[in-house]
Amino acid sequence: MTQSSDTPATSGRSRSPVAAHPVTSAIIAILVLASIFFALYVPFYASATPKVGDFPFFYFYLLIYMPVLGVVMWIIITLQRRLRPGPGAEGPAGAGDGEVTR
Amino acid sequence: MSNVNAVTFTIVVVLFLVVTLTGFAAARWRRAEDMLHLNEWGLGGRGFGTFVAWFLLGGDLYTAYTFIAVPAAMFGAGAVTGYFAVAYTIIVFPIALIFLPRLWSIARVHHYVTPADFIRGRFGSRGLALAIAFTGILALMPYIALQLVGIQAVLTVMGVGTTAGNAFVKDLPLFIAFLVLAVFTFVSGLRAPALIAFIKDTLVYLMIIVAVLYLPTKVGGWGHIFSTAQAHMTSISPVTHKPTGVFIPTTGNSQLAFSTLALGSALALMVYPHAVTAVLSTKRRDIIKRNMALLPLYSIMLAFIALLGYVALADKVTAANVKKANNPQLAVPYLFQHLFPSWFTGIAFAAIVIGALVPAAIMAIAAANLFTRNIFKEFFKPDASPRLETRVSQWVSLIVKVGALLFAIGLPKTFSINLQLLGGIWILQTFPAIVSGLFTRWFHRYALLAGWLAGMLYGTIAAYNVSSPTASHWAGSVNTLWGHTYYIGLTAIILNIAVSAVLTLVLRAARVPAGTDETLPRQYTADPVDAPARPAPAAAVLESEVPRGD
Question: Alpha-carbon distance B392 to A26, whole Å?
Answer without folding.
Answer: 47
